[in-house]
């Protein structure tokens, strides 16, 4: 790695230096080829093979100059990570040498053996063929020895097997419906509407040598046990705290690596929990933001390894302190860059903004279940509703001003609130709306933050594709309904007001500006009839509700079979996760913890009898009490290990019905894992630290 020297180069020069971006294309492609490629990228026009050949050749020359020997179609299968298979550019010549070649056909289409990727039963294993198709809207890049070509992935018979295809479809669909609305407001020039996303990424950094000693971290990404350290996050001294040198060095190299890949890494800081940090990029088109977030997670892990660190992306690596999430900042803008969720200086008079806002309100209320489902995973179940994370109940924060505007419309009275409020603050600098709402609610799962929505329920490890597919499709559906209603309206202002009034009457229950972390809200939400779906197993079956199938099928995002496949895949992943956790904990108990406790209780017993042998008068109450307590825990842990193994052998764990298996895991395995943890943590506290087989929370969280 060329790290140290990189900083001496300037950042603008470094930025995108590993990306086959617009500059490179302009420089290296013949004019007409560049033009038709641009048309494909900007307007979705089909690409012909002659153009593809020219692009492929230019890409290959450029990549080879950057040191690449291989290319790979890079895709995002249903398991939420990325996949790659590398082919070299070599092509034999008649005289026994090789030349470097790359054709348009190879650029456009790949044929990875698809049989080992999750497909939720869509593609029988004997029918292994899958196709990858170049996505020219996301730039190719060089990483390591390879040219990476972002691609979509589908089966031989055309079923979608990845996350990129539906995301692109949902973006196009939203664009179509939003443009209809713009036309109603007299905008004839906008051709496309684009959804933008800036995903803030949280993560933990721990020492690799300590990590290596913990099977739970290695196999499951989280600690399955571990007594709390004397200090957690209660001093509130880590959030935005000064960054330690080793972490700073990691962050610096991370920024450089991301910049090279054209990723707009912008903000870095310490997060609330000890050893927890965050990176936020500048927002970009959803599709690219998704690719970039996948890359960011991967680069984080790789750079950490070079610093003797491990980057934990699990949603809840440590009990008792904050888990990690991902904040999906989402907005909608025109192709000329006008943000359609920007209320401007006078939101009350910004009818178009209010209409878009109403679409989001209605959509979030009607599809609470889908938003919850879009963030469902075994890992995120530990986080939602726990320390400093939004609850599993979907609601929306709009802030006082917007809520007041909407309430005025609902009551059909003129809105007068703004001026008054500004006078009250006594602020002389004119506070426009975005300033007003900056003092915002951090406890809402879905918060309006001035000119965008911040969806905060995402877990740190998941791909942002699914939440954005949901958001885009839901918004597209509501805009479609609004456009159907308003097209041809002769009294637009009045009709929009009436529509917004109706949306408020029917959907304002979803708006909640208070403390989303409080128990009072959980009860209030229930009274309002909002869905409370605490776990993956509770929410996921609703994915296949008729209204949701209707939504995705009518917008041509998924077929019903593709939805069933997705449901199967997520449930299967949940079951597999819990199985791995169960097996890991069982082996930790049997191979490390029980032997350690047994050795120590044996030693205590020998000490006690040795003392007694010297003289019965020598006090040994402390060791006797400790021996009794630890021996009881030892028996308990052994019994729990036996019981866990038995539970894991239950046929329901392997049931072909994923809901049966997942329900069993939730109801039978999780409580057992938690009970074991309690007993083990108690034993840890009673054992000499040198005799406990694993690095402690204190070491893991405070030693970097
Ligand atoms: P914070 O939420 O920490 O106060 P910011 O308001 O600066 O931070 O923004 C957080 C994230 O929101 C950043 O990643 C930023 O790029 C992103 N963001 C800002 N504007 C938009 C937008 N119009 N669309 C999508 N994301 C946006
Ligand atoms: Mg934020």
UniProtKB/TrEMBL annotation:
SMART domains: Gln-synt_C (SM01230). Residues 163-593 form the GS catalytic domain. It holds the Pfam family Gln-synt_C. It comes from the Bacteria. InterPro entries: Gln-synt_C, Gln_synt_N, Gln_synth/guanido_kin_cat_dom, Gln_synth_cat_dom, Gln_synth_gly_rich_site, GS_Type-3, GSIII_N. Gene3D superfamilies: 1.20.120.1560, Glutamine synthetase/guanido kinase, catalytic domain (3.30.590.10). One of its GO terms (molecular function) is glutamine synthetase activity. GO terms for biological process: glutamine biosynthetic process. Residues 69-158 form the GS beta-grasp domain. Belongs to the glutamine synthetase family. This is Glutamine synthetase III.
């Amino acid at each position: 790695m060329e790290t140290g020297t990189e900083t001496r180069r300037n950042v603008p020069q470094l930025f995108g230096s590993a990306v086959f971006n617009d500059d490179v294309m302009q420089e290296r492609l013949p004019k007409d080829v560049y033009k038709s490629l641009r048309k494909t990228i900007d307007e979705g026009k089909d690409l012909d093979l002659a153009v593809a050949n020219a692009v492929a050749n230019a890409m290959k020359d450029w990549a080879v100059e950057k040191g690449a020997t291989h290319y790979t179609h890079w895709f995002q299968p249903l398991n939420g990570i990325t996949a790659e298979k590398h082919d070299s550019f070599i092509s034999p010549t008649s005289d026994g040498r090789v030349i470097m070649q790359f054709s348009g056909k190879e650029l456009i289409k790949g044929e990875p053996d698809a049989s080992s990727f999750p497909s939720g039963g869509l593609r029988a294993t004997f029918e292994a063929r899958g196709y990858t198709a170049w996505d020219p809207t996301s730039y190719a890049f060089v990483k390591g020895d390879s040219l990476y070509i972002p691609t979509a992935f589908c089966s031989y018979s055309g079923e979608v097997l990845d996350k990129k295809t539906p995301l692109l479809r949902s973006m196009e669909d939203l664009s179509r419906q939003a443009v209809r609305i713009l036309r109603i407001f007299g905008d004839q020039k906008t051709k496309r509407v684009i959804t933008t996303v800036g995903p803030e990424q949280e993560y933990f950094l721990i020492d690799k040598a300590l990590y290596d000693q913990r099977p739970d971290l290695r196999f499951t990404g989280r600690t399955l046990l571990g007594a709390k350290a004397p200090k957690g996050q209660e001093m509130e001294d880590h959030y935005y705290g000064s960054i330690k040198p080793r972490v700073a060095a990691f962050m610096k190299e991370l920024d450089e690596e991301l910049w090279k890949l054209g990723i707009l890494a912008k903000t870095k800081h310490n997060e609330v929990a000890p050893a927890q940090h965050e990176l936020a990029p500048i927002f970009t088109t959803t599709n690219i933001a998704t690719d970039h977030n996948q890359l960011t997670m991967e680069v984080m892990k790789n750079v950490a390894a070079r610093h003797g660190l491990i980057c934990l992306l699990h949603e809840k690596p440590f009990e008792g302190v904050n888990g990690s999430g991902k904040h999906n900042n989402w907005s909608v803008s025109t192709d000329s860059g006008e943000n359609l969720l920007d209320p401007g200086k006078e939101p009350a008079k910004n009818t178009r903004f209010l209409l878009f806002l109403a679409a989001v309100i209605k959509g979030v209320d009607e599809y609470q279940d889908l938003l919850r489902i879009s963030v469902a995973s075994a890992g995120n179940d530990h986080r939602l509703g726990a320390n400093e994370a939004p609850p599993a109940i979907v609601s929306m924060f709009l802030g006082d001003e917007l809520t007041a505007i909407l309430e005025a419309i609902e009551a059909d009275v003129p809105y007068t609130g703004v001026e008054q409020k500004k006078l009250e603050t006594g602020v002389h600098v004119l506070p426009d709306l975005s300033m007003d709402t900056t003092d915002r609610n951090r406890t809402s799962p879905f918060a309006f933050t001035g000119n965008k929505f911040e969806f905060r329920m995402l877990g740190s490890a998941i791909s942002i594709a699914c939440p954005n597919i949901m958001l885009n499709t839901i918004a597209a559906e509501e805009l479609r309904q609004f456009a159907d209603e308003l097209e041809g309206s002769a009294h637009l202002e009045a009709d929009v007001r009436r529509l917004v009034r109706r949306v408020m009457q029917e959907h304002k229950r979803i708006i909640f500006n208070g403390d989303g972390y409080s128990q009072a809200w959980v009860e209030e939400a229930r009274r309002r009839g909002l869905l409370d779906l605490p776990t993956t197993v509770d929410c996921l079956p609703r994915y296949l509700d008729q209204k949701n199938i209707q939504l995705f099928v009518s917008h041509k995002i998924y077929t019903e079979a593709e939805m069933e496949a997705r449901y199967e895949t997520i449930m299967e992943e949940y079951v597999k996760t819990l199985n791995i956790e169960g097996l890991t904990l069982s082996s930790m108990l049997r191979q490390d913890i029980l032997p350690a406790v047994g050795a120590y209780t044996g030693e205590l017993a020998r000490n006690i009898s040795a003392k007694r042998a010297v003289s019965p008068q020598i006090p040994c109450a402390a060791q006797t009490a400790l021996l009794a307590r630890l021996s009881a825990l030892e028996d308990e842990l052994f019994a729990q290990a036996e019981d866990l193994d038995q539970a894991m052998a239950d046929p329901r764990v392997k049931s072909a019905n994923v809901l049966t298996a997942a329900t069993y895991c939730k109801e039978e395995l999780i409580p057992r894992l938690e009970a074991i943890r309690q007993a083990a943590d108690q034993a840890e506290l009673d054992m000499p630290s040198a005799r406990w087989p694993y690095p402690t929370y204190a070491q893991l969280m405070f030693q970097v």
